[in-house]
Structure formats: C-alpha cells, structure tokens
C-alpha cells in the first residue's frame, strides 16, 4: 500500500459499471443499455472520419471554430457562446470544476443522471439529492434544498432515466428562483428526440447563470467519438475555457461532428424512426402489463410490479442476448431502462418479455 491520500470525496466514488456489449455464451447480443442510436451516425460523418485520416499528424483545432459555427448556424446560437467537450460529460465536468469546491453543495434530482454526484465528489463537493414527484422534477423541492453552500444545480430535460419532460415554464421558474451565485445546468442530451424543443436555449438567454449542455452521442449516433457542447452566456464560456485542455477534441471527432450537424435529413430520419418504434414497443409492453410514461427520448422506462420482477426480467432478457439497464441505482428499483433499438431489436424485446410473462404466470 502506498501512503498517498486521494483528495476528499474521491474514494466515495464507485467505479463506473455498465457498458458491456457481451453476454457470456450468448450469441447475437443486442446492447440496449446505453441509449445509443441503433442506426449509427450519418454516412457523411463516416466519410468525414475517413477524410480526416490525411491530416492525423497535425494537432486538431484548439478553438473548434468550424464546429461551433456549424452548431451555431443550425440552432441560431452565437458561436462565441458555445464550448465543445469530450462528450457533454466533459462540459459538465468543467462546470463543477470551475464553480464548486470542497464543502460546496451540488444539487441533482432523485432520478438524475449518475454522473452528477460523481462530478460533485470529484471536486470535493457534496452531492445533494432532491426528491422528484412521480418521476417529475419538483422545482419547489429544489428551491427549498438550496443553502448558502449551493453552487450548482443539475436538471436533465428530457430526463434520463425517466424520459419525462419538465415544462419550460417550470425551468424558467427555477432559473428565476435560484440565487445568482448558483449555476443552473440544463442537460439536454436527448433534446433532438423532442420535435421543436430548443433544449433550454431560451432559459440560457434569459439568465446570466444558466448553461445548456448537448451531445453528439445520442441522435447523432457518435457516442464513440465523444463530442458534446454547451451554450451559456459569454462570461461562463470564458471561465470554462480556462480549464479546457487546448486539444481536448480529436481532429477525427471534430470532423465527424461537423459533418453530422450538416446532415439534418439524417437526424430527422432517426427521430421519426425512433418515435415510430418507441411508440410500438411501449404499446406492446403495456399490453403485457408493463407500463411506461410517454417517452420523450430514445428509451423507455419499463415499470414492473416490483423489484423482484424487474430483476427476473432483466436476467431473462440477458439470457436472450438483450442487454438493458437496471436503474435501481437511480431510485427506480422496479424499472428497466430499454433503449429503442431498430425494428429487429424492438421485436426481440417484445417477444422476450412476452415469453418472460408467460413463464411467470
Ligand atoms: N447527460 C445525460 C442525461 C446522459 O444520459 C448522458 C449519456 N448517457 C450524458 C449526459 C453524457 O453524454 P456524453 O458524454 O456521451 O455526451
């Protein structure tokens, strides 16, 4: 044993579990546990990756100018108010690193994304979990949980793993009610699955202390490339850029993301296929007595009678080569989070849960 002492909070972080794409002894496995796009990225993004190989001896852009310009043009946002990160995880990390320190409090909600408490602990801050109501974020509960030590509040809209949507008026009410020394993070990883939703950009525009984060890992199908971005007032972007490594994004990742933004026809195709297949799967599961809230994302939060049934179904799905996500760690012990896959995947899930229900009658 060495005599090194990690910083406060570090040893309280559990090592990340999940991400497995294999089940021992089972063939034809389909991974439906990480909300990846089953159709992959735009073919134009794949071409851009190939083309980027010609310049691999060069360092990539340090200011991500072309990608920020493409994102800005697509969303009607000022490029100088955008920052890009290695996945939106990195942008979230910049926020906590810059604004919370030892002894400060970071608020996240009962079913909030698992990275939030991890990032808080990594900064020596205290993660404070606030209850939700029926899988919906409770703005009043967040406001009353704020103390003098609160520095960051995390929201996910639409939620993961709940898939529920916080109405914009509620997000505005929260932003208006928070002290100005608290930064509100509106995490819009699944924004593009909600037709016409701006991900929280209007809330950012109305306040000095709000940042919206977005990702290329979901509808853009580029989880393997690790690209995310944030949109915030210039003063916040200026702070975050100080801790960003100059070459945080690879040339290949930048090229892929830029090409993907330019192919909105492909995004539209993925959105409509996801909504068609997601609605079908939710309906099939409901017929089997497995309800879910209306999905605003590319996954369904399937609710079982109790924890034992959810665990047994998870085990059965695994035997059938279907990897889904247990969400007991998100205070949802009775539920399984199932990514909406392609046609074949959705039919296999419906079939396997039908069999599971038959066997357990
Ligand atoms: N926020 C939420 C709510 C997510 O579900 C995810 C991915 N699971 C992320 C952020 C991080 O995404 P990435 O780092 O791949 O952009």
UniProtKB/TrEMBL annotation:
Keywords: Amino-acid biosynthesis, Aminotransferase, Histidine biosynthesis, Pyridoxal phosphate, Transferase. Its cofactor is pyridoxal 5'-phosphate. Belongs to the class-II pyridoxal-phosphate-dependent aminotransferase family. Histidinol-phosphate aminotransferase subfamily. GO terms for biological process: L-histidine biosynthetic process. One of its GO terms (molecular function) is pyridoxal phosphate binding. The keyword Amino-acid biosynthesis applies. Residues 28-353 form the Aminotransferase class I/classII large domain. The lineage of its organism: Bacteria, Pseudomonadati, Pseudomonadota, Alphaproteobacteria, Rhodobacterales. It comes from Falsiruegeria litorea R37. Pathway: Amino-acid biosynthesis; L-histidine biosynthesis; L-histidine from 5-phospho-alpha-D-ribose 1-diphosphate: step 7/9. InterPro entries: Aminotransferase_I/II_large, HisP_aminotrans, HistidinolP_aminotransfase, PyrdxlP-dep_Trfase, PyrdxlP-dep_Trfase_major, PyrdxlP-dep_Trfase_small. It comes from the Bacteria. Homodimer. It catalyses: L-histidinol phosphate + 2-oxoglutarate = 3-(imidazol-4-yl)-2-oxopropyl phosphate + L-glutamate. Its EC number is 2.6.1.9. This is Histidinol-phosphate aminotransferase. The modification N6-(pyridoxal phosphate)lysine is found at residue 218.
């Amino acid at each position: 044993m060495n005599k090194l002492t990690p910083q406060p909070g570090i040893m309280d972080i559990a090592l990340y579990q999940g991400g497995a794409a294999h089940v021992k002894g089972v063939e034809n496995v389909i991974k439906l546990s990480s909300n990846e796009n089953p159709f992959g990225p735009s073919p134009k993004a794949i071409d851009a990756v190939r083309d980027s190989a010609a310049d691999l001896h060069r360092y990539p852009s340090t200011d991500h100018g072309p990608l920020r310009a493409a994102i800005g043009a697509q969303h009607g946002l000022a490029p100088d108010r955008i920052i890009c990160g290695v996945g939106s995880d990195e942008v979230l990390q910049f926020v906590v690193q810059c604004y919370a320190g030892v002894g400060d409090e970071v608020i996240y909600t009962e079913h909030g994304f698992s990275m939030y408490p991890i990032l808080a602990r990594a900064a020596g801050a205290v993660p404070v979990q606030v209850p939700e109501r029926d899988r919906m974020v409770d703005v009043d509960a967040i406001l009353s949980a704020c103390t003098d030590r609160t520095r960051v509040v995390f929201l996910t809209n639409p939620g993961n793993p709940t898939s529920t949507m916080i109405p914009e008026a509620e997000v505005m009410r929260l932003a208006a009610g928070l002290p100005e020394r608290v930064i509100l993070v509106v995490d819009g990883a699944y924004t593009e699955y909600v037709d016409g939703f701006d991900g929280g950009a209007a809330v950012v525009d109305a306040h000095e202390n709000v940042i919206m984060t977005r990702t290329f890992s979901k509808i853009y199908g580029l989880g393997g490339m690790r690209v995310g971005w944030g949109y915030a007032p210039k003063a916040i972007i200026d702070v975050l850029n100080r801790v960003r490594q100059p070459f945080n994004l690879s040339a290949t990742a930048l090229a892929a993301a830029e090409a993907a933004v330019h192919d909105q026809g492909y995004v539209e195709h993925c959105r409509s296929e996801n909504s068609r297949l997601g609605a079908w799967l939710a309906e099939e599961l409901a017929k089997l007595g497995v309800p879910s809230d209306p999905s605003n994302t590319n996954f369904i939060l399937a609710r079982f009678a109790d924890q034992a049934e959810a665990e047994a179904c998870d085990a059965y799905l695994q035997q059938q080569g279907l990897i889904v996500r247990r969400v007991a760690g998100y205070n949802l012990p009775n539920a399984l989070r199932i990514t909406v896959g392609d046609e074949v995947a959705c039919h296999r899930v419906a079939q396997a849960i039908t069999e599971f229900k038959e066997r357990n009658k």
